[in-house]
Write a structure and sequence with these properties.
Length: about 775
């Protein structure tokens, strides 16, 4: 059977299908619908092309592949016969029934039929010439010599090899599975290593010079969970070695705790970058040295910093630009600093802050866990590097998390079990979905609160079900429920520390972070009150009585005297010196204190000049005056023109960004919606009806149809004739997008340069612009 004959046979099969069946075909294989095919004949040819079959094959699981392989094997004609052999469903089921359930095998035959990869009745199935393009490999490995062997039996064959053959297989396992050798020919020396490996089934012959490594062998040699070709049942990705100790509530609680930690670390990193922006490498990346500095400043490990940097950059919360205002160590060059969008993010509730970071992780086209590793040239990969760009990374994350979503809530899953399940569901991704990729992806998912205790959290399930970049209410509600309830109290200790037993309310958090420094975070945070932290609160306009009231109102333990004494002592000395704008001035009610300032080293650095016993001026900027006086041991405070204390804290440097947030890279061909599918099916049916219609003849017994080409007077006259005689027309038409189509039209009126009529098979009124009609043909009634 030639390619044309197969296409014709498939076209006949497609024409017999219902509109719903054709709509399902276009939904499963959207490439067949673009552009809309001109009839089932064109659809059949397109469906049998190698490129389209290869796209359809990416959606097949291992059982689909095994059934398709078996159909190819049974349909391959003997050497002396050229026409393919019809295949029966019973033959496929009998051949694979020892490795899968017969009902499942029959269902997969129907699935492949719906995909138009095979077609025909149960007693006469057919496969196309390029059907093998749907397989994840070139040879037929699931029905080959190793198909019925267990992984242990394959290992036993590998253990019995000599060093030369082992090295040859190891080389193929590390690189492409295909290799070329003259010893691959059937008449080659049987003692050659390649010929012996082919005879043992450890290599598959593709042609006289090409061999392929079976996937089972490659996985064993790479240390991956081997593909179970001897058992084609769907694997369950449970962790058999772990008891089910955690309930769904425990998992969600752990996920909420991780989300809070991520937000806290992200806020800390934003503050550090605002104070000291990170230098940009010539390549536009963030170097390892800067990563190390950020790690030291935040107290986080470099891997954690790299992940947060990637998320912030993808969400456009940091970017490269000229920091404004320039930091103290500004070099005048581009640097990574928070963007103006970061301020809005900092004031959002925790669940929205987390959602921004989670969506960035799902869509970022880089792998943060590769930062710091050597590339192919041995150079360390920096953060935000183009070398780490991988357009497949977002899709892989979704695939891995979808594997977890297929388990029952609260089910713990091992990495090896998940890898085996993913390989069964996605055999085309055997070389991409490795144990390392799955393990590192789950680690990052755990750090984001999507996975906890080796199980997918409720928040993770809601996030996967939501549309990309959509602030789904269900996801926000799930995270809000998973987060611990905010507390409005703390425990003040005699050692000047305060313990907060949970996340604080936003108002309390702002006040505590102003008057105390975080010492350790987590579910219960510990803050320490110091002279500097109290002075920071006083600089922000708080009074000593307000600070003592804060501790008295919110502490569940009595406020220690040591804490009260510290606040009152710092407040007593605070603000004796007042710094204002002259460029800057210093004002002090105590002349002796100002005299001490004028005698200090800071006076020379600031070029202080006394105007009166209680007033001095400086040409330096007010912030520099404050810093120099504090370094000299004084406790100055800033004031405005009215003499009121002002908050001298800075939000840090910011960079402007004109680019929007990067979104998930769309698939190569998006799926059609239901309206588009119905339109394609309608045009397909219309073209088939138009091709089958009988044209009218010029004279009785003549074979010349009554036809007019172009859009001139002849076409207009023929349309008018059809209107008078109430006869249908076959119309060839090109729409505004340049797409050609053929229709059977029952004309009703021709007016204003348009032919108006109803299309055969429908009651819909259609409008055809006369200048877009390429030909018309009069049909019999």
């Amino acid at each position: 059977m030639s390619s044309d004959t197969r296409a014709d046979a498939l076209a006949v099969d497609l024409a017999r299908r219902s509109d719903d069946d054709l709509a399902e075909l276009f939904a499963l294989r959207p490439d067949l619908a673009a552009p809309p095919p001109q009839g089932t004949g064109v659809l059949g040819q397109r469906a049998l092309s190698a490129a389209s079959i290869a796209l359809a094959g990416e959606s097949l699981d291992l059982l689909d592949v095994a059934v398709l392989e078996q159909a190819i094997v049974l349909g391959t004609p003997p050497k002396r016969r050229k026409t393919p052999v019809p295949v029966t469903v019973s033959a496929i089921v009998d051949a694979l029934s020892d490795r899968a359930e017969p009902a499942d095998l029959a269902a997969r035959v129907d699935h492949l039929r719906r995909l138009a990869l095979i077609w025909g009745d149960d007693d006469s199935l057919h496969v196309g010439a390029h059907t093998a393009a749907a397989l994840p490999w070139r040879a037929l490995h699931l029905t080959g010599p190793l198909g019925h062997l267990t992984p242990d039996e394959v290992r036993a064959r590998l253990d019995g090899l000599d060093e030369r053959r082992s090295d040859l297989l190891a080389t193929l396992s590390r690189g492409p599975a295909l290799g070329r050798s003259r010893d691959a020919a059937p008449d080659a020396d049987p003692a050659a290593p390649v010929a012996r490996l082919i005879a043992d089934g450890l290599l598959a012959r593709i042609d006289h010079q090409t061999v392929e490594l079976p996937p089972q062998v490659g996985q064993i040699l790479r240390g991956e969970p081997p593909l179970r070709s001897d058992d084609l049942h769907r694997p369950v990705p449970d962790d058999d070695n772990a008891s089910r100790r955690f309930s769904a509530r425990d998992i969600d609680a752990a996920a909420g705790g991780e989300a809070l930690e991520l937000i806290r670390h992200t806020v800390a990193l934003l503050r550090v970058l605002g104070t000291a922006p990170a230098a940009v490498l010539r390549s536009g990346a963030l170097g390892v040295r800067e990563l190390r500095r950020l790690s030291k400043a935040t107290g986080l490990d470099q891997r954690r910093v790299a992940l947060i940097v990637e998320l912030l950059a993808h969400a456009r919360l940091i970017d490269a630009g000229f920091p404004d205002p320039p930091p103290a160590n500004d070099t005048g060059e581009h640097a990574f600093a928070p963007t103006t969008q970061a301020d809005a993010w900092l004031h959002q509730p925790p669940e929205r802050q987390w959602l921004t970071l989670a969506q960035a992780w799902l869509s970022v086209p880089r792998r943060a866990w590769q930062v710091g590793e050597p590339d192919r040239d041995g150079t360390t990969i920096p953060a935000l590097s183009a070398e780490n760009q991988d357009a497949h990374a977002p899709a892989q994350r979704h695939t891995i998390l979808a594997g977890l979503a297929n388990t029952a809530p609260g089910t713990r899953v091992s990495v090896a079990g998940l890898v085996a399940a993913l390989h069964w569901h996605h055999p085309h991704g055997l070389r991409r979905i490795t144990t390392r990729v799955v393990d590192e992806t789950l680690t990052e998912a755990r750090e984001l609160g999507i996975v906890a205790h080796a199980a997918l959290s409720s928040v993770g399930r809601a996030l996967l079900a939501a549309e990309p970049d959509d602030e789904d209410a269900a996801t926000l509600a799930a995270m809000r429920k998973a987060l611990p309830e905010p507390v409005d109290h703390f425990l003040a200790q005699a050692d000047l520390t305060i313990t907060v037993p949970g996340p604080m309310t936003p108002d309390l958090a702002e006040q505590v972070e102003l008057v105390a420094d975080l010492e350790s975070g987590g579910a219960a945070s510990v803050y320490r009150v110091t002279e500097d932290s109290v002075r920071r609160a006083l600089d922000a306009g708080r009074s000593s009585s307000e600070l003592i009231t804060l501790f008295t109102a919110h502490s569940r333990t009595p406020v220690p005297q040591s804490l009260t004494y510290l606040i009152e002592d710092v407040a007593r000395r605070h603000g004796q010196l007042r710094v204002g704008l002259a460029s800057s001035f210093i004002r002090c009610e105590d002349a002796a204190t100002l005299a001490a300032v004028l005698r200090s080293d800071a006076a020379d650095h600031l070029a202080l000049r006394a105007l009166a016993p209680t007033v001095a001026v400086s040409p330096s900027e007010i912030r520099e005056v404050l810093e120099q006086l504090r370094s000299a041991g004084f406790a100055p405070a800033g004031e405005d023109s009215a003499g009121e204390l002002v908050d001298m804290r800075t939000r840090g440097s910011r960079v402007a960004t004109t680019r929007g947030r990067r979104t998930l890279i769309p698939p190569r061909r998006s799926a059609l919606n239901s309206d588009q599918v119905r339109e394609v099916v309608s045009r397909l049916r219309s073209h088939d009806r138009a091709m089958a219609a009988r044209p009218a003849r010029e004279k009785k017994g003549s074979t010349t149809p009554v036809r007019a080409a172009g859009n001139g007077e002849t076409t207009t006259a023929l349309i008018q004739l059809a209107l008078r005689a109430n006869r249908p027309l076959r119309v060839d038409y090109v729409n505004a997008h340049g797409s050609a189509s053929r229709h059977i039209v029952h004309p009703r009126i021709m007016s204003a340069g348009q032919l108006i009529g109803t299309e055969d098979g429908t009651d819909d009124e259609q409008h055809f612009s006369l200048h877009r009609i390429t030909s018309v043909e009069l049909l019999n009634e």
